[in-house]
Amino acid sequence: MCMALGGRASEAITFNKVTTGAQDDLRKVTRVAYSMVKQYGMCDSVGQVSFPETEEQGAIGRRPFSQGLQQQMDHEAKMLIARAYRHTEKLLLDNRDKLILLANALLEREVVNYDDIEALLGPPPFGPKKIILPQSWVEAERDKQDVEEDEPPPPLSKRRDEDVDQQLV
């Protein structure tokens, strides 16, 4: 959630305003928060329950929970998002020097890649990222499928004979 809120929080910190560019991230964060509360049982005040999404229910129908519980779930989802946003803001403010470097690079070039970020901010604190080229991944997946297809299934006749022998003993 914090990663998705990073763009919105950095706009607010750097430019003192938020644009509509972060709207999709906010929609995703809201969906994650509601899923945590309504589907994954990750909220103590709501409990270990899992309600289906309204889209999954299909047509018009009754909710499997009361209006009071819906209000509580709304409140909990908002609280999760607010805590994540505050945490994201704190993280960005603690690293404001790096945020300013990155913001200036984005204003100058509009798009930065991994190498640009590493040149600006230094190497990642937990070691370099392992970059997998898309083509390499596709080839690896194809190779896995080829190997699985090449392996013959165990012969059925042997298994049946062994089962018969076991039953006679």
Automatic annotation (TrEMBL):
Record bears the keyword Hydrolase: yes
Region of interest (Disordered), residue spans: 140-169
Keyword entries, A-Z: ATP-binding, Hydrolase, Metal-binding, Metalloprotease, Nucleotide-binding, Protease, Zinc
InterPro entries, per the entry: ATP-dep_Zn_Metalloprotease (IPR050928), Peptidase_M41 (IPR000642), Peptidase_M41-like (IPR037219)
The Peptidase M41 domain, residue ranges: 1-119
Cofactor(s) for this UniProt protein: Zn(2+)
Leader sequence residues: none
Protein name: Paraplegin
Species for this entry: Ilyodon furcidens (goldbreast splitfin)
Name of the encoding gene: SPG7
